[in-house]
Each structure stands twice: as structure tokens, then as C-alpha cells.
Automatic annotation (TrEMBL):
<dbReference type="InterPro" id="IPR051023">
    <property type="entry name" value="PP2A_Regulatory_Subunit_A"/>
</dbReference>
<dbReference type="GO" id="GO:0019888">
    <property type="term" value="F:protein phosphatase regulator activity"/>
</dbReference>
<keyword id="KW-0677">Repeat</keyword>
<dbReference type="GO" id="GO:0005737">
    <property type="term" value="C:cytoplasm"/>
</dbReference>
<dbReference type="InterPro" id="IPR016024">
    <property type="entry name" value="ARM-type_fold"/>
</dbReference>
<protein>
    <submittedName>
        <fullName>PP4R1 phosphatase</fullName>
    </submittedName>
</protein>
<dbReference type="InterPro" id="IPR011989">
    <property type="entry name" value="ARM-like"/>
</dbReference>
Length: 277
């Protein structure tokens, strides 16, 4: 049992929806009874710019790294204590701080649950999608882990943005596109046959023609898994159209590399060759 002097009883009336908090209300909104309040206050003060000048230039990054652990300790019922700090870190001028949050946002979503995720994390996630590549790679590596936690309607909104991952600050950043192909394989389980054909198929075909062989090899697996998904879903029309497109784009390609791509795609899933007959 903690000493009674360290217990702080949180009053629900402090969770006012009024955006104009008084200093006293602002202090009370960060009160909880899980850990010593002084310890939490010390952690929250790590975002103070003066601390970076006097204590450690990377103190904000350390704060961002520890935030999921602090959130887990406090529990989702005390997320109000961390929300402002999280938003401050998410808009920090240092990309390393934002990158740290981007790599852990899927873990925080599990801790907070779907409602808090939709209200407080999705806007931050959307901001990271438009950030530097060093930050975007954080959300890309765990794209499936985050999107699977969203409701279907909200998840479908990101179908329109997936193609933006094909564009990077540095065109030689082939690992970015390779990671995209890996994530698309996982995303096949989250979307319908129609969504796969309309949105994921064009991206997959683009990756199959990538200049880097490592990206192409992962893309071959992506296309074969896509065929399997559509076939299992009994989406015969989509399967036939996809096969026709594969034949037209690669099998009958005037370049040998295109015809080789067709062979490699078939090689990944040999038992689907019969579909071409």
C-alpha cells in the first residue's frame, strides 16, 4: 500500500469538456492515484524546452520512448494525464522524437482501446503519414498492426492513401517500398475482394516493376497471395480479370524481364498455375 500522502483521488468532474481550463483545473486533470504524483509530474516536465537546454538535449526523445510504458502503467482511465504531453511530443521540432512515437503508436493503440485511438491517436497517425520518410517508416512498419485496431469504415479511408507510400523523399530508398510490399501482404486479410482489386492491385503491379530486385521478389509473393485471397473469396470475376492483366502485362511483355516476372509469380505459388489454364 502506498503512503496515504501520495494518494490522489481523481474527481470525474475534473474531466470537463471545456477547452479553457484554469491553471487549477489543468493541474487536477493530470492527477491520478496509480503512481506517486510527484513522479508523474517529473515525467511530464520532460517536454519543457528548458530541460533540453539544461539537462539533456534528447530528453524529449527519452520521454517519447517511455510513453507507452507510462500509459500502460497508468491505464487507459488515466490517459487524460498524458494526452497533452503526447500531442506536444507528436509536434516536436526534432524528427527523432516524432519517429520514436511513430514506431510505437500501434502499441499505444492497444493500450487505449478503439474509442480513444479513434479520437486521439488517428489525428496524430495521419500527421505522421505526411511527415519525413524517417518518421513515415515508423507507421509503415506497423501499418497492419495499427489499421487492424480501427473500425472497418475508418480503416477503408486509408485505402486512398496507400499509394502515397510509393513516393519517398529519396527514390533510392528501396527498403521503404520493400516494407510496403510486406505490409500489403498482411493487409490482404483486412479488406474485401473488391477493395483488394480496386486499391491494392495497382500498387502491387507497380512494385512488381520496381528497379530493385529485392522489392520485386517481395512483390511476386504479394501478387500470388492476392490471387489466393481472391480465389478463396470466390471472387471469380476479379480472379479472371487479374489473371488476364498478369498475362497481358508480363506474360506477353516484349521485354524478357517482364516475361521472367510472370514465371517468378507462378513459381511462388505453383498450385495456382492451373488457374491460367
Amino acid at each position: 500500500n502506498m503512503d496515504s500522502a501520495l494518494h490522489y483521488i481523481h474527481n470525474d468532474s475534473d474531466l470537463s469538456t471545456n477547452s479553457s481550463f484554469s491553471p487549477e483545473e489543468e493541474r487536477k486533470s493530470k492527477v491520478q492515484d496509480v503512481v506517486p504524483q510527484a513522479l508523474l509530474d517529473q515525467y511530464l516536465s520532460m517536454t519543457d524546452p528548458s530541460r533540453a537546454q539544461t539537462v539533456d538535449t534528447e530528453i524529449a526523445k527519452h520521454c517519447a520512448y517511455s510513453l507507452p510504458g507510462v500509459a500502460l502503467t497508468l491505464g487507459r482511465q488515466n490517459w487524460h494525464c498524458l494526452k497533452d504531453t503526447y500531442e506536444t511530443l507528436a509536434s516536436d521540432m526534432q524528427w527523432k522524437v516524432r519517429r520514436t512515437l511513430a514506431f510505437s503508436i500501434h502499441e499505444l493503440a492497444v493500450i487505449l482501446g478503439d474509442q480513444l485511438t479513434a479520437g486521439d491517436l488517428v489525428p496524430v497517425f495521419n500527421g505522421f503519414l505526411k511527415d519525413l520518410d524517417e518518421v513515415r517508416i515508423g507507421v509503415l512498419k506497423h501499418l497492419h498492426d495499427f489499421l487492424k485496431l480501427l473500425h472497418l469504415d475508418k480503416r477503408r479511408e486509408y485505402l486512398y492513401q496507400l499509394q502515397e507510400f510509393l513516393v519517398t523523399d529519396n527514390s533510392r530508398n528501396w527498403r521503404f517500398r520493400a516494407e510496403l510490399a510486406e505490409q500489403l501482404i498482411l493487409l490482404l486479410d483486412l479488406y474485401s475482394a473488391r477493395d483488394i482489386y480496386d486499391y491494392l492491385r495497382p500498387i502491387a503491379f507497380s512494385l512488381c516493376a520496381d528497379k530493385v530486385s529485392s522489392v520485386r521478389w517481395i512483390s511476386y509473393k504479394l501478387v500470388s497471395e492476392m490471387v489466393k485471397k481472391l480465389y478463396v473469396a470466390s471472387a471469380s470475376t476479379f480472379v479472371v480479370d487479374l489473371m488476364d492483366e498478369l498475362v497481358e502485362k508480363f506474360c506477353r511483355c516484349h521485354k524478357w524481364s517482364g516475361r521472367q516476372t510472370f514465371v517468378f509469380i507462378c513459381q511462388v505459388k505453383r498450385h495456382f498455375i492451373q488457374l491460367f489454364c
